[in-house]
Structures are given as C-alpha cells and as structure tokens.
Amino acid sequence: MDLNFSWDFSTPEIYCLGALILIWIIEIIYQFYLFNRPFRVYQKEKNGKIEYTHPYPAVSVIVYAQNDAENLVKYLPKILNQAYPEFEVIVVNDDSTDDSKDILSVLETQYKNLYHTYVPEGSRNLSHKKLALTLGIKAARYDIVVFTNANCDPKSNEWLAAIARNFVPGIDIVLGYTAIERKEKEKLSFWYCSYDQLLFSIRYLSFALINRPYMGISSNMAYRKELFFKNKGFSKFLHLHYGDDDLFINEIATRTNTRIEVSEAGQMTATYQDNYDAWKELKLQYDFTSKYLHTAAKSIFGIAKFFDYAFDILFVCLWVEGIIHNWATAVETASLHTKTSLKSSQGEDKWLIFFKVVSSLFAIKEKLPVMTEHQNNTMRELMVKCHTLNTKFKFCDILRALRVTVHFIEQNSLD
Q1: What pLDDT digit, counting tens, does each position of 252-270 carry?
Q2: Alpha carbon distance 7, 14 (integer Å)
Q3: pTM to 2 decimal places
C-alpha cells in the first residue's frame, strides 16, 4: 500500500525540519567536543603519552558488601590476587544476613592482606553505606584508599596498578569506569541500560578532563585519605541516604587534583541479579543527589536536556505533520477521482469505507479513539480489512497513478 514518498514539504514541515537539523548539528558539536575526550585519553595511554607515578604507592582497597556472599566468593579473590607490590583489602560487611561473615573468615586465613569489619547491628545511621565506608577509611593503614563494591569484577589483575599509577604529585583523586555485566540471555532493555550508563560515565569523566570534575562512582574510584578527614567525612550530607560518592567527590575535587583512568585494565564490571532494576535504582539515586551538586556543569546539563527534548518533540511533530499532510492529500486526490467530497462523507461507499478503516488504524497507532463502527475491531482485523479492500478495488494503484499525473501536470505548467 505504498503511495511513494514525497519531497514536497509544507511550510510548518520546512520550519520543523530546519530546527531539527540545527539542533542535530549543535548536539553533534557538543557530543564531539565533550564526549570524545575520554577516548583520546584512552589512545594516549595506549601510545605511552601519559606520565604515571613510579614506584607504586601502598594503597588500601575498601570493598563494600551487603548480602554479597556469592559475589565475595567469585570476585574478592580477583582483588586479593592483584599484581601489586603493597596493598591491603578491607571488606566492610554492612549488616549482612547471609554467609558473608563466614566466607570472609575463611578467606582471611588464606590471604594475609585481607581484613574485614562490619556495621554494628541495629545502627540507626540514615545511610549505612556512609557509616560502612567511614569505618573502612578509619581502618585503612595507607594514605591512598581505593573503593569498589563486592559485586564488581576487575577486568584484569592490573586493575589496582592502573588506578594507583595516576597518583602523581598534585593528584588526590582518580575516577574510573564501571560497565554493566552482560548475561547470556539478556533482555533488550540491557542495551538501553548499558547505553545510558555509558553516556552517564562519559559525561562525568569528560568534565574531569576539562578541569570541571563534579562526581565519581563508588564502584571504581580512589582518593587520598587525608581529604576525607579534612572535609570532616560525609558530615555535610549525613541527612541524605545517598551521596557517598558523587556528592563527596563534588566537595573535594578541584580543577587540578583529579585524574581519570579509562584503560581496559583499570575498568570494573558490575554484576546484578536484574540489570534493569539495578540501573533504574541507580538512575533514581543519582537524579536525586544531582540537585545538591555544586558545579557549573549543571547549567550545561540543563541546556543539553533542553536540546534533547526539543529534538524529540520536533521529530514527533514533523512525523505527525507528514502523516496529516499525506493523509489530507490522499483524501483530496481520491475526491478528485470520484468527483465527490469524501472529507464531507460524500461519495462512493467503497472509498468512504476504505478511508474510515485507515482512519481507525491511524487512531489505534496514535492511541486515540477509533470510529464508533470499529470499536469492537482489533488492529489486526482492521489491517486485514484494509488489505482486502485495497486488493479488491486497487485504491493505492489509483492514488499512485493520480499522484504521478498531477505531478506531471505541475511540471509541465512550470515549464
């Protein structure tokens, strides 16, 4: 039932299309300027053009765990077996009710650099995670503390070295990247979640590269312990359930004291029982805390979001305008053929029935009320009816032929 595509645009369509192209160009320039930076750093690292510290400093790795017995068995040995000269691992067990405590006790007998502590049962602290991390930082022996979660899998045994090598003189914070683990039989929603997570990560990493760091994520980041105590820990946002990573980094990061690590060796992979639910929870968490961020980047986010919404709205308007314009053209063309006014419900029954069926199909597609006579019909039934009518009476062939004729007449008139 194809009636051919027309390049003849109405005035509203031309305005919408022009605005759409303008916004698209602005988005491309913005994305290329900002989001391309982490990839350039990645290439510089591969080509050996970035200066790193040597020898490696001693570090304390703090792993947050809450009912992560299975994850501790799978991933904690990978952290403990990192190819790194001097480090300790402190697991903070946040009131777990599974076998985490027993697993940690067994692992402590196998690894001399593993220690674990716990959040006291019945603690009334609003944010257990902030309390857990505070306990871990206070227990740390070394000045540099590296943070991750029990559900995170380092991509290589060089992960710790990749993060720690960035602590050259003047650098106090290192921000890393964490991806979402792909499962064997993954839902379609996983690709959207991964794409959104990638954009989210590239954004905060890119702003750090233009000397405007504003946040980090607790699954893969590090900072000097002295910054924690100078800032009085999480005292400025103890009233919030979240903020142990993004809001804290927002407080302590400056234009010159932050680096990022995006090499493959320095990446983490987070595993969840349900990727979509986890992504949604993290999305809500960071959306909530974003209003407490102190950064000029927020205005840029607002402008970028405005352009995103404007692009979507204009695209929908252009699409709807195109449908209405083509639909009106089809009705007028059929009226010309039948020498009647179909839009006034006059003319041959077969044409009126055909256009009513097509109108109801459009209404179902746009989630609008269908014609009264089609309220008991499904979309499939209407599609079958439309196809049957077109096969019998050749409506599309007639409209296509009339369209070609009109176009030919218009061209000859112009000549």
Answers
A1: 999 999 999 999 999 999 9
A2: 11
A3: 0.71
